[in-house]
Design a protein that fits this description.
The complex is a heterodimer of chains A (235) and B (128). With 235 residues, chain A is α+β, with helices and mostly antiparallel strands. Chain A contains eight helices and seven strands, in the order E-E-H-E-E-E-E-E-H-H-H-H-H-H-H. Classes of the chains: A alpha+beta (235), B mainly alpha (128). The complex binds iron/sulfur cluster (SF4) and FE2/S2 (inorganic) cluster.
């Protein structure tokens, strides 16, 4: 471990004080094995206590620390600075309104998630013990269950940027996760919601979501399967 | 709260997928523009044979032949990336979408070179 000098440019916005966001540069020394979150902590603790950002688990589980670093969405807590060199440019996630500095308003993100009913819907009575699901049935939903709702995908999506009505990759992935779940009976309701010009059809297979996803979920592949399912359902 | 509205985030890094999408859209717009031009040119037929021949002679000049190779390129890109999108959505292509892009665009490029050769050869033949 060695100390290195880095330059960190951060998009700042203090409500009530700033009219619009502006850049602030911090030249600091950090350990070369630092993560982006370590850098933000260093600034917050040693240089400017007013810097605001979200973090909680610092182990890529809670999904609160997604932000845009040098043009790409990443989780601050799991991303080492050496991925970007000695010049960092840190911004809040695109497409969301800014509450303060790197903290964005995620209410619309979670509202979209709620629209697709992200919970098990049952027509039949629940079994006495647990639901039986075969390995093949589990394989169907696969990685789509790994989402930590960090919003990095939706904030990286060019279809989402100009259109706040688009459900976005995270909500659509969640729709896939339940529609293809063998235990669930709510597929028809959800298919009706995603079969919309602001639903799955606004996915133009750009793959920014896949590049951004810290859990490396093949979101576009699942959304393509969802498209096929929606078409099959209306035949 | 600072409200953000954005048409496109130009500072976001462009991976292969987003380049493919941007170019696909631009190629689509270019083709619509070409179609309008095409209809306008064909429309000269309604003004008689002489008018049409005049326009054709004008369009057979070297600059338009060069533009034609560009048009051929735009058509090929739009068609081959379109095939890529179909493979992505219906045949699990999303798992290999970058390779698909490189392979299909390489094939398109070869066809572009061949076609452009034929188009430009035609120019020389007429000039000679
Ligand atoms: S799909 Fe990936 S990028 Fe999107 S919210 Fe879930 S974990 Fe984050
Ligand atoms: S702090 Fe929890 S995911 Fe980064």
């Amino acid at each position: 471990m060695a100390m290195i000098d880095i330059s960190v440019k951060i998009l700042r916005y203090q409500p009530g004080k700033d009219e619009k966001p502006h850049w602030q540069v911090f030249n600091i020394a950090v350990e070369d094995e630092s993560t982006i979150l370590d850098v933000l902590n260093e600034i917050h603790w040693q240089h400017d206590g007013t810097l605001a950002y979200r973090r909680s688990c610092r182990s890529s589980i809670c999904g609160s620390c997604a932000m845009k670093v040098n043009g790409r969405n990443v989780l601050a807590c799991e991303t080492p600075i050496h991925r970007f060199g000695r010049k960092l440019k840190i911004e809040p996630l695109s497409g969301f309104d800014i509450i303060k500095d790197l903290v964005v308003d995620l209410d619309p993100f979670f509202a979209k998630l709620k629209r697709i009913r992200p919970y098990l819907i049952l027509d039949k009575p629940a079994p006495d013990k647990e639901f039986v699901q075969s390995p093949e049935q589990l394989e169907q939903i696969g990685e789509s269950t790994l989402c930590i709702l960090c919003a990095a995908c939706s904030a990286a999506c060019p279809s989402s940027w100009p259109n706040s009505e688009y459900l976005g990759p995270a909500a659509l992935l969640k729709a896939y996760r339940f529609i293809f779940d063998s235990r669930d009976d709510g597929a028809d309701q959800r298919i009706e919601i995603v079969n919309d010009k602001n639903g799955v059809w606004r996915c133009h297979t750009i793959f920014n979501c896949v590049e951004a996803c810290p859990k490396k979920i093949k979101i576009t592949e699942y959304l393509s399967r969802l498209k096929v399912k929606v078409v099959e359902n209306s035949l | 709260m600072y409200k953000r509205t954005r048409f496109y985030d130009f500072t976001y890094y462009n991976f292969i997928g987003s380049w493919a999408w941007i170019l696909h859209r631009l190629a689509g717009l270019a083709l619509i523009f070409y179609l309008c031009l095409h209809i306008w040119v064909i429309n000269s037929l309604t003004h008689g044979e002489a008018a049409f021949n005049n326009v054709m002679a004008f369009l057979n000049g070297v600059p338009f032949k060069l533009l034609e190779t560009g048009l051929w390129g735009v058509i090929l890109f739009h068609a081959f990336n379109g095939v890529r999108i179909v493979i992505i959505d219906f045949f699990k292509g999303s798992l290999v979408h970058k390779k698909l892009f490189i392979v299909l665009i390489a094939v398109a490029f070869i066809l572009w070179a061949l076609g452009s050769y034929l188009i430009l050869q035609h120019v020389q033949w007429r000039a000679g």
